[in-house]
Write a structure and sequence with these properties.
A 4-stranded parallel β-sheet has the order 6-5-7-8, with helices on one face. A two-stranded antiparallel sheet has the order 1-4. The chain has a two-stranded antiparallel ribbon with strand order 2-3. Helix 2 crosses helix 3, helix 7 packs across helix 8 (125-147) and helix 22 runs antiparallel to helix 23 (528-623). The two termini are 42 Å apart. By secondary structure, it is mainly α. It is elongated and about 180 Å long. Helix content is 71%, strand content 5%. Residues 505-538 are annotated as: Disordered. Residues 505-532 have a biased composition (Polar residues). Keywords: Coiled coil. Residues 395-457 form a coiled coil.
Length: 716
């Protein structure tokens, strides 16, 4: 079955030509049907086509007439006879008639539709006018699509005159836009459908007869193809009309019946597909051409310019052909304009190789044709160079490239400035962290020194107070007791200030009671004068005791305050130290994150660079993706990688000396990888290749460089 969307994907169908050929023999005429049935009955004993059943004296033969049985009949009868006869002895017409059955059966045939549709548009005057009207609105986008397609470098436009090349490029560009937008996002389906309708309207305007014919038909079969071929004098135009017929039928949803005539039309499309895209290169017998060139040059030294030859031979009276100067004058031209056109050595050798034993007059006529062809080619190049649409396209392309280049420069500059700013910020932050770290170290050191000094002062103060507790007497015993208590309280630092105050009050009351008892005893035992002296002494002792007690209390309070201050300072220092450690850890995490960010930026830059290299590689591969090439030699891993970029190419290993010669067919380029290549295989390929097949040489394993090298050699 023929797939849908022929415009976007080309014509693809799975061929069953053997069964279709048997159906064609059974349906074409009574004679061919009887001949086929007789041949089947003769071969029944060998092949077992029929199943026999007997009813009385009547023998009944039946056959299961399905596709497999039809293919069996073709192989057993038709193909067997052709092989006995030898296919090379078949007449050309018969070989073309049985070609699909012999060469296309059970194959998925794919024919590119874009060039056939463009050719059909250009060769039809109504379609050509319609595409130019469409170009007035969408000309820029269509021409850009054509210039960005793979058909820009093909020989398709050489089928047309200069005036028809712009419509041809517009038609190719319109179909390319339809294909590109079909591959784009899903939200562009509406635009794709609109442009597809524009194309079908252009085709239906010029080929209205085909549309009217399809409206009356229930299906398409090979008879419509046969009628198109019979009514046309140009086979390429007939093949293009077949493709238009299929596109219109697809638009009208008319099914296709794949009979044998349909496969014959498919064979015509497949044979002209490559001719539309590439021109055949002429075979040049260089040795014979150079030999004839040397012989003619002995009597005529200036063979490269036709005007010089015409001028030197102008005195001849006898002429076997009309005078070209007269013909030029009739068309308002002067033969002298060819004076500046001179052929090169290889051109003259080619002319001399066309006919063995060419005479001078024959060479002059051929030289005139060659000079005119060269002049026409230069005019075509001049017209293409000065074409307004081409000029506008080059301007748009240059402006687009300039904007892209400026955007890349701006992005790189902004990226560089951003990275420089980040670098400066990180350096400043790191410098500030180092300064803060030094300040915190100095502050911690000062705090430790201050704590050490205060600790020494407290120790010296304790040593100063301690000797006052060692004096004698009763009052001294009380003071010693109080001092011991005070020392214990200071050393332990566990009792509260209120408890210490209560203890001191109790000590004072006890001392007062003892003093009163001593006074009473003294009054009872001593005389009044002695009692007065002792009373004064006791008062002095009590005063001194009270003063010592007060001094001890003050010392204790000072010690408690200093201890609390020292503890508070130590806690503050520890807090500041912890905060400093947190700040340092946070700075370290920030520095680590910034380093990770820099590594991420570097990896992104490397990934971008790798993406650019991959993009360039894919760009080189896309330019050659449609080329049919034979790649020979190289390591097996290298061939495996190259197959990803050149899927339509065929690869041959370096040790495959017994290859099938058919691998050389339809190959425009033959590429040798000289790193891994055997001499026997090289000379065998060189000996069997055709003259028009171009030889390319590569070496190495770098895919990008090799694709660039192949693209450069193809373009040169």
């Amino acid at each position: 079955m023929v797939q849908k969307n022929i415009v976007c994907e080309g014509l693809r169908c799975c061929v069953h030509s053997k069964a279709a050929f048997i159906d064609w023999c059974m349906e074409s005429s009574k004679e061919s049907r009887n001949m086929l049935i007789q041949a089947m009955m003769n071969a029944d004993g060998r092949e077992g086509f029929f199943e026999s059943s007997q009813m009385g004296s009547v023998v009944k033969k039946s056959i299961l007439w399905n596709q497999e049985q039809k293919e069996h009949v073709f192989d057993a009868i038709i193909r067997r006879k052709l092989l006995k006869r030898g296919q090379e002895e078949l007449p050309q017409l018969l070989a073309a008639a049985v070609g699909p059955a012999l060469n296309m059966d059970h194959e998925e045939v794919q024919v590119e539709s874009i060039l056939f549709l463009a050719y059909a548009i250009v060769r039809n005057e109504t379609c050509r006018e319609a595409i130019m009207e469409y170009a007035e609105k969408e000309g820029e986008t269509c021409y850009d699509a054509y210039k960005n397609s793979s058909y820009k470098d093909s020989d398709f436009l050489s089928w047309f005159l200069v005036a028809d090349r712009l419509p041809a490029s517009m038609a190719v560009g319109l179909i390319e836009r339809i294909r590109l937008e079909e591959e784009a996002a899903e939200d562009s389906d509406a635009d794709e459908h609109r442009r597809y309708k524009d194309l079908t309207e252009i085709l239906e305007k010029g080929y209205r007869n085909l549309k009217n014919q399809l409206k009356k038909a229930e299906y398409i079969d090979g008879s419509m193809f046969q009628k198109i071929v019979q009514d046309s004098n140009d086979m390429v135009h007939a093949a293009s009309e077949m493709m238009v017929l299929l596109v219109i039928a697809e638009e009208l949803e008319i099914p296709v019946h794949e009979d044998y005539d349909f496969y014959l039309g498919l064979q015509i499309l497949e044979s002209y597909e490559e001719d539309l895209e590439t021109l055949p290169e002429p075979e040049i017998t260089e040795n014979g051409g150079r030999r004839l060139h040397r012989n003619l040059q002995k009597g005529h030294p200036r063979m490269e310019s036709y005007y010089t030859c015409y001028y030197l031979d102008g005195t001849e009276t006898e002429r076997t052909v009309p005078d070209p100067g007269t013909v030029f004058e009739y068309f308002h031209l002067n033969l002298r304009m060819l004076a500046g056109i001179e052929l090169e050595q290889k051109d003259i050798d080619f002319i001399c190789s066309l006919l063995e034993g060419m005479k001078w007059q024959e060479y002059k006529q051929t030289l005139l044709i060659a000079s005119l062809c060269k002049y026409i080619h230069s005019l075509q190049q001049l017209c293409e160079k000065n074409d307004p649409e081409e000029y506008r396209y080059r301007q748009r392309r240059a402006e687009k490239d300039r904007k892209e280049f400026l955007n890349k420069i701006e992005n790189l500059q902004s990226r560089t400035a951003y990275l420089e700013q980040k670098k400066r910020e990180l350096e400043n932050c790191l410098e500030q962290c180092e300064k803060e770290k030094e300040k915190l170290k100095v502050k911690i050191q000062n705090t430790e020194e201050k704590n050490a000094l205060e600790r020494e002062e407290l120790i010296s103060l304790r040593n100063y107070v301690f000797p006052f507790t060692q004096t004698g007497g009763k009052g001294a015993g009380v003071i010693q007791t109080e001092s011991a208590k005070t020392g214990c309280e200071w050393i332990g630092c566990v009792q509260t200030e209120n408890a210490r105050t209560e203890s001191q009050t109790g000590c004072a009351q006890t001392e007062n009671a003892r003093t009163k008892s001593a006074q009473t005893e003294y009054i009872q035992t001593e005389n009044p004068s002695t009692e007065s002296a002792r009373t004064e002494r006791v008062r002095t002792e009590c005063t001194r005791t009270e003063r010592v007690r007060t001094e001890c209390a003050r010392t204790e309070c000072a010690q408690i305050g200093c201890a609390r201050a020292e503890r508070a300072q130590a806690e503050s220092a520890q807090t500041e130290h912890a905060q400093a450690e947190c700040v340092l850890q946070e700075r370290a995490r920030t520095e680590c994150a910034q380093k990770v960010h820099l590594k991420t930026v570097d990896s992104q830059a490397k990934a971008y660079q790798n993406h650019e290299e991959s993009h360039r590689t894919e760009g080189h591969a896309a330019l050659m993706k449609g080329e049919k090439m034979l790649i020979i030699g190289g390591h097996i891993n290298w061939q495996r990688k190259m197959k990803q970029y050149l899927p339509r190419s065929q690869f041959l290993s370096s040790d495959n000396l017994h290859f099938d010669n058919s691998v050389l067919h339809c190959k425009r380029y033959i590429i040798f990888n000289t790193d891994v290549l055997k001499h026997g295989l090289y000379y065998k390929i060189i000996g069997q290749r055709k003259k028009e097949q171009k030889i390319l040489y590569v070496h190495g394993n770098n895919i990008d460089k090799i694709l660039q090298d192949i693209n450069r050699q193809i373009s040169s």
